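In keeping with the milestone schedule agreed at the kick-off meeting, the structural modelling team has produced records for the first pair of proteins. Each record is given below as a sequence line and a C-alpha cell line. The laboratory manager (R.T.) confirmed that both were archived under the project's standard naming scheme.
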Amino acid sequence: MSERFFLAAPPVAGRAELSGDEARHLVRVLRAAIGDTVSVFDGGGREWPARIATIGRERVVLDLGQPQAAGPTPRPLTLAVALPKGDRQKWMVEKLTELGCTRLVPLATTRGVAEATPRAIERLTRGVVEACKQCGRNTLMEIAPRAALTDVLAARDPGTLALVADPDGAPLGPVLAGHEGAILALVGPEGGFTAEELATATAAGCRSVCLAPHVLRVETAAVALAAGIWADGPGHAA
C-alpha cells in the first residue's frame, strides 16, 4: 500500500496515530489490515514508512520506521492573493501546494469578491493537506488569516523581493534575475488592483511583473507566478 497520510499529532516513541478522516479513509475506504504499510508525514518536512499496529473504530496506531531524508527546500515564497470565488479557490490551493509555495495570504482589496472567513480558511487548509498527500510534499503550505495590502507589505522581511502582478509590468524573468532569496508576490482580484492599490505597492518597493500576453484570471495569475518563480530558482533556471 503506497498511500500517504497526514499526522495531526507528532509521533511519540516510534509510534503515531491517525484519527478522524485520515483513520476512516484508511480503514473504511482502503480496507487496510494490521501489518499493512503506508507512508506518513507531519507537515513540517518529516516523512516515515509505517506499519499498522492496531485498528479501532476512529483510531489507527502505527509503528514508524526510520524517517526519510528531507528533499530540497525551495526559496520562501508568499503569495498574497485576492481570493477568487468557489471551486477556483480549491484548484488554486492545490496547484500552489504542488509548486512549493510557502504561504498563501488571502488579500483584502477594494474589488475583492470572496471573503476569507474562518470556515473558508479551514476548508483551504484541508485542501493543502490533500494536495500534499497526492504530490509527495511533506511541508504544509500555510494559509494565513486575511490581511490588508498595507499590512502584508509592512510585514515582509528585509531582503524580500516584492512583486505585483500587473498587465503593464515587466517580464517576470528579468525581474527575478540574480535574486535567490525570499519573494512576496501580490495578485489582485477580478477587475484588478485599483490605481491607489498599485500606487501603494509601488511606493512600498514592489516590482510590477507581466505574466502573459493576455489578462489572466486570479487563480491563473497566482499559479503562473509560482511556476515562474520555481523555474527560475536555484537548480531550475533555464
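The second protein of the pair:
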Amino acid sequence: MKVGFIGLGVQGKYLAINLARAGHDLMVYDVRDEPLRELADEGAKIARTNREVGEHAEVIEVCVVDDRQVESVMLDAEGVLAGARPGSIAVIHSTVHPATITRLAERCKTQGIELVDAPVSGSEPGAKNRTMCYMVGAGPEAFERCYPLFSTSGKDIFHVGGPGAGIRAKLAHQVMICINMLSAFEGMRLGLEAGVPAAELEKVVRAGGAQSRVADHWQAFNPGRRSLPIFYKDLQLALAFAHELGIAMPGAALTQQMLEQVLRLDRA
C-alpha cells in the first residue's frame, strides 16, 4: 500500500519504521533531518513537504504533538489536503480535542477524503516492540483499510465507533492512567515512609486489589521530563472536554496540579 507518515518523534519514528519493514511503499516527512535519514535507511521515500506526502499516499498517518500542529500539517498551503486525492484516508494518531477531529473530518469530506482518528497507547517502548494499543474512530470500510497498517505496530486494535470515537476513548484512557499514577504515588509514599521495604510493598500491590500496570513496578517507573508536558496536555484536553459535557472530574484536576511530584521529576 502507498502510505504516508508525518511526525517522526519518539513514538512516530518507530511506527513508521514498522510500516517500512512490513514492505509498504512509504513516504515520510518531519521537520528534523535525523529521523528522516533513519527512515531513508529503512527504505522510505523522503518528502520535502506535507503536501508531497498527501500526493503520494492512499493512507496518510499523522503523529504530531498537539492540535495546532495537526491543523497546520493538514490545512496549510503546503499541507496534506493540498495534495491528497479523493478516496484517500487521513489518520490522526495525535491526542487532540474532539472538536479538532470534527472540524478536520468536515473539511476532509468536502474533498472526498475520509478522516480516521486513531490515537495510540504504548509510547516509545510499545512502538519499538510492536505492542501498541490503537483506539480507532472510523467507518467500517476505512477501518478495514487501515487495519493492516496498524497491525504492523500492535495487535490490540479496537474499533470503538465512528469518526471521533477514538479520541474520546483516548482521553478517558489518559484520565485513568494519570489518576492511577497519583494513587500509586501516594500509596507507595505512605508505605515507604512507614518503613515497608519497596520490593515487598510492590509484591503486595501486585497480588492485591491495588494491582495495576502503573503500580506493579512503581520504583522503576520514571517516564522522564519529556512526559510531563504530554500528560499535562492530555489532562487539559480531557478537563476541557468534560467541562463541555457538564462532567466534574476533580481527581483529574488534582492529578494535573501534582504531575511534577507524581512523575518524580525532582529525582529523574
